[in-house]
Design goal:
Helix content: 40-55%
Radius of gyration: 26 Å
CATH topology: Lysozyme
Keywords: Signal
Shape: globular
Order of helices and strands: HHHHHHHHHHHH
Largest sheet: none
Strand content: under 5%
Number of strands: 0
CATH class: Mainly Alpha
Length: about 240
């Protein structure tokens, strides 16, 4: 006959219930937790996407027909470098991000240029996607540890200093975030963070030291529409 078991004594059952359970799940390493946190922080840093970048810089979907093809970058090429610059220089407010992206898109004609060419032949040493002057490019290059050993030999040669910055897309597209975080006053940055036209105007006139034009403002409005809370990838002005 089949063996028939008898119920276990009550005290034995209680003993079994009191024993700690062993999990069969694999342990999660501290490194995994760190990577998850880092990924979460990167994702929450900005709402900028390739689709939104194309709305801000309408012709950045292609480099076909670019006057200087070797300088042109599409939105898909620009995006990871812009996101990296936000993380590097801790640009976390959407108002500041909108100002930076719109400035670079306007100055580089939707990322078609990384050197100043106009009026021909252009101003030697002026460039990066922010179209910074040679003076600021020298300061920017000096702030990058990886360029420390190369900068002395290029010092005094405006074109050579610019070429150092253009040797890496991260430096090229990082100029806008660097400039805002190091060259603009706390007052300008604070006003810019609100996303207001008044704050942006102060940024353009007091920090970038240029004039507000309708064309420049249209870029900024598209950036605001894309990056403000609840913003959309739909290509329209704010």
């Amino acid at each position: 006959m089949w063996f028939q078991s008898t119920p276990a004594p009550l005290h034995f059952a209680v003993l079994l219930l009191s024993l700690p359970l062993r999990s069969t799940a694999s342990p999660v390493s501290p490194l995994h937790h760190h990577q998850q946190r880092q990924q979460s922080q990167t994702c929450s840093l900005t709402s900028l996407t390739e689709a939104k970048l194309k709305c801000i810089a309408p012709s950045s979907n292609t480099c076909a027909g670019a006057s200087f093809p070797d300088e042109c970058a599409t939105a898909s090429q620009a995006l990871p470098n812009i996101l990296h610059s936000f993380q590097t220089y801790k640009i976390t407010s959407w108002g500041e991000q909108a100002a930076i992206v719109s400035l670079m898109a306007f100055e580089s004609d939707d990322f078609k240029y990384k050197k100043n060419h106009f009026p021909a032949p252009g101003r030697p040493g002026q460039g990066t996607r922010n179209m910074q002057s040679p003076t600021f490019n020298a300061k920017y290059a000096a702030s990058i540890p990886a360029l420390a050993s190369k900068l002395p030999s290029a010092s005094g040669d405006l074109a050579s200093v610019l070429n150092l910055l253009l040797s890496d897309e991260a430096y090229d597209f990082g100029s806008g975030a660097w400039f805002l975080s190091t060259q603009c006053s706390k007052e300008v940055r604070s006003a810019l963070q609100s996303g207001s036209e008044t704050g942006w105007t102060a940024y353009i006139t007091q920090c970038v030291s240029t004039t507000v034009t309708d064309a420049r403002m249209e870029y900024w409005k598209r950036a605001v529409n894309a990056l403000k809370p609840g913003g959309t990838a739909a290509c329209s002005s704010a």
